[in-house]
Please model this.
Amino acid sequence: MGGRAAVDRLLEQELDYPAVALEAGIKGEVIVAVRLDPTGKVLERKLARSLSPECDAEALRLAGLLLWKPATAGEACSGKEVHIAVPFDPVKQKRWLKSRHKREGEVWALPVDSVLDVFSAKHLDRQVAPEIQGGMSGLPTYLARELRYPPEAYRYSLDGTVTLEFVVEASGNLSNMHALQEVGGGCLEEAMRLMHRIAWNPGLRHGKRVRSTMQVSIRFTLPKEAR
Model:
């Protein structure tokens, strides 16, 4: 879900470089082979290229966070195998760590559910919330203040609503982000930028941080002078 850009973003936000590998100067790439059925269900995840036991385990974990689209009509996808490259590079890791949101508060002391299930809002004991003034109720104000109207959309008088669907990970990071409704002219990219720059508190279930799905709609309304 979300294509290559979503995979790259997941690695940037979620990869936890094993300390033992980092200290030993181990670097390189793990290749994970994922076998899918036509519905997008994962049948198997296995190593196609190994690096070290610790890096291999982290690469398999990350591959398990990816959601997959069903095959399109006529596409041969029975037992289809896809390869995911997971880089372990100290230079990249240092840069990625700088870009990550700081995590503070009681919620981060709670354990993480080890199951990779993704829950809907109705199955959560405490809902996902952005770390902004007013939480979810403050989201429209935040978006109106921070939204930068894309120059291309402005030039061609494009407006409308972008609806995004994504997973809020137990870490509070967003993954598998994709559009349910688009506008064009750079509006989708701007909507994604707005979502990723917010720090999020994950949903809770039975006292644990869990993965959960969420949808957000962002309205792009042309400035009056552009109409």
In short: The beta strands are 28-36, 42-49, 80-88, 118-119, 129-130, 160-168, 174-181, 200-201, 203-205, 208-220. Residues 106-226 form a domain with the TolA/TonB C-terminal domain fold (CATH 3.30.2420.10). The CA atoms of residues 8 and 86 lie 9 Å apart. The mean pLDDT is 92.
